[in-house]
Amino acid sequence: MYRLGIDLGGTNIVAGVVNKDYKIISKASCKTQVPRPESEICDSMAEVALKAIDKAKITLDEISSIGIGVPGAVNPKTGVIEYSANLFFHNWEVVKMMKERIDKNIIIENDANAAALGEYLAGSAKGAKNAVAITLGTGVGGGIIINGKIYSGSNFAGAELGHMVIVKDGKECACGRHGCWETYASATGLINLTKQKILSEKLDFSYMLKICDGDINKVNGKTAFTAMVDGDPAAQEVVDEYVGYLATGLVNIINIFQPDVLCVGGGVSNQGENLLGPVRAIIEKERYTKHNDKQTVICQASLGNDAGIIGAAYLD
Predict the structure, then answer these.
(1) DSSP per residue over the chain, as a string?
(2) Tens digits of per-residue pLDDT, 115-169?
(3) Shortest CA distance to 118 belongs to which of 10, 5, 29?
(4) What residues does 74 pair with on adjacent strands?
(5) What is the pLDDT of residues 61-114, one digit of tens each?
(6) Widest CA span of the chain, in angstroms?
(7) Distances (CA, A) of 173 to 185, 194, 196, 251, 306
(8) Residue 49 to residue 307: CA distance in whole angstroms
(9) In the sheet that 149-150 helps form, which strands lie side by side, from edge to edge?
(10) C-alpha span between 250 and 247 (Å, rounded)
């Protein structure tokens, strides 16, 4: 038997057939195109699921269950997406609606939790007992695995790690608070830092702006790192500040959960050791357990976007 995982994102809906070895053997996708009616989103999810099954050259009877990862507050017990700001969903009975299209056992979960489970089963956290996965994207996503199980709290909205405050009265976050970690450590936060530095430079020449073809709107999460590697001191200042914010949150997570593995994913994590090397140096100095023999392994998540599909497929 096989399982099927669906990653319902703000841009794309991706479905994958996953075998017993946690390998994706086929995928299909389409654009999410939000906002649009929930029934249409379900139609699209069912369509890509059936396409992935067809591409795998198997039948629907060979699929034992379907899991769906969704950003936002998700209640796996009721099968309801209680709130998803980016997808404009509120109290959507998605499991009931999907079962009207595909009569299978269907489970839903927060997408960051699903990704953490994927990394735990088949990625960088494989073999760990306790693990935390962080995703650095538009925001900061978090997933916590304790004794092999997703931890989501009593109201299924736990692990919103991006919304711990690291700067009192700091920048306003989309959640309404000020100083949230994701405001500083997300890819969005890094882009904003880079733009601010470019605009503040008292120079006729900005190397970071040059590599963006002179268009500040082309600044992305790679700009400062690329310029830093090329020796630009202003870019080094941006990276150092960003690394400081990222490390602050990671130290808090390590001090609270003491996971065996903490893996960092999302687009910013593709900077590899240019990012994680200086992050580890700060963590080694600041973590509470600095004198212990056993320490949390800090590494790059290895599955990329496949983590969410694999984790969703193996939701129980």
Answers:
(1) -EEEEEEE-SSEEEEEEE-TTS-EEEEEEEE--SSS-HHHHHHHHHHHHHHHHHHTT--GGGEEEEEEEESSEEETTTTEEEEETTTTEEEE-HHHHHHTTS-SEEEEEEHHHHHHHHHHHHSTTTT-SSEEEEEESSSEEEEEEETTEE---TTS----GGGSBSSTT-SBPTTS-BSBHHHHHSHHHHHHHHHHHHHH--SS--HHHHTTTT-GGG--TTHHHHHHHTT-HHHHHHHHHHHHHHHHHHHHHHHHH--SEEEEESGGGGGTHHHHHHHHHHHHHH-TTTTSSS--EEEE-SSTTHHHHHHHHT--
(2) 999 999 999 999 999 999 999 988 899 999 999 999 988 888 788 899 999 999 9
(3) 5
(4) 81
(5) 999 999 999 988 899 999 999 988 778 889 999 999 999 999 999 999 999 999
(6) 66
(7) 12, 18, 17, 21, 28
(8) 17
(9) 149-150, 140-146, 131-136, 261-265, 297-300
(10) 5
CA quadruple 148, 153, 158, 161: dihedral sign: negative
Determine the distance from the C-alpha atom of residue 48 to the mean position of all C-alpha atoms in its chain, rounded to a whole number: 22
Task: Name the pLDDT band for 291 (thresholds 50, 70, 90).
Answer: very high
C-alpha to C-alpha distances, 250 to 128, 211, 239, nearest whole angstrom: 18, 30, 16
pLDDT of residue 84: 84
Q: What is the pTM of this model?
A: 0.90
The residues, any chain, with a CB within 8 Å of residue 231's CB and separated by 6 or more, are: none
Q: How far out from the chain centre does Cα 54 lie?
A: 28
| Measured distance CA(73)–CA(112) in Å, rounded | 11
Q: Which residues pair with 12 in a beta bridge?
A: 31
Contact present, 196 and 237 (Cβ < 8 Å): no
Contact by Cβ (8 Å): 224, 242: yes
136: number of Cβ within 10 Å: 28
Burial of 290 (0-12, 13-18, 19+ CB in 10 A): exposed
